[in-house]
Amino acid sequence: MEIQYFFELFGTLFFGISGALATDDQTDYDWFAAGFIGFLTSIGGGTVRDILLSVDIMWIKDVNLLYAAGLGVLLAAIFYKPLLSLRRTFMLFDTLGIALFTIVGMEKALHLGINPVIAPVMGMFTAVFGSVIRDTMLNELPILFRKEIYAVACLIGAIVYLILMQFHVERSVNFFVSGGVIVFVRLMAIKYNLSLPKFKRS
């Protein structure tokens, strides 16, 4: 199996965990509701990407992605307390999810002949739309619209990937380096409360 496929599986798993844990503050959510939110978080971004790229929706073609999402929800239930502690400290699983999905989405766009200027946007859509759907379903302000650095971290990692690709860096190495950049930028932004300047009208 190609590394891109493993990235998509693990990204789906991490977003399944993230989505299920996001229902923590919603005390009335049962197993089905938590699983449904985890599922939407896992497949939302990839679905938007595939629709925009006019290709078969990935999770409909490959049942393993549904298994990965389900496993994420199950892990969130079994290891609820330690995972919730990690989520609150660094939003770890959401960060891992966006790192993996950004690179997967961009690679898929590039393989379909999409302009390299557009490909990072496809990667970002893959990464962030699951979280947007999750937050919307939970009646919260989507993380994309909060002050913290989120989508920008995805774009930075995607640009790093394109630069390394121009220097003919081995593909597997490029995957891990670019994904690592996204994780690093996101975690540093959380740790030091970094954000972009506010948009001010004159």
Task: Write the topology of this structure.
Blueprint: H1 3-21, H2 31-52, H3 58-61, H4 64-78, H5 80-90, H6 92-111, H7 119-137, H8 151-166, H9 171-191
Structure description:
There is one protein chain. The chain is mainly α and about 200 residues long. The protein contains 9 helices and no strands. It has helices at about 5-20, 30-50, 60, 65-80, 80-90, 90-110, 120-135, 150-165, 170-190. The radius of gyration is 16 Å and the shape is globular. The N and C termini lie far apart (about 55 Å).
Element pattern in H and E: HHHHHHHHH
Mean pLDDT: 89
**Number of helical segments with 4 or more residues:** 9
Computed Rg? 16 Å
Low-confidence stretches: none
Report the principal-axis shape.
globular
Tell me the fraction of residues in β-strands, as a range. under 5%
What assembly state would you assign to the polypeptide chains in this entry?
Answer: single chain
Tally of DSSP β-strands: 0
Structural class: mainly alpha
Biggest pleated sheet: none
Please give the alpha-carbon distance between the first and last residues.
53 Å
Helix content: over 70%
Which short descriptors sum up this protein?
202 residues; mainly alpha
In short:
Helices cover 73% and strands 0% of the residues.
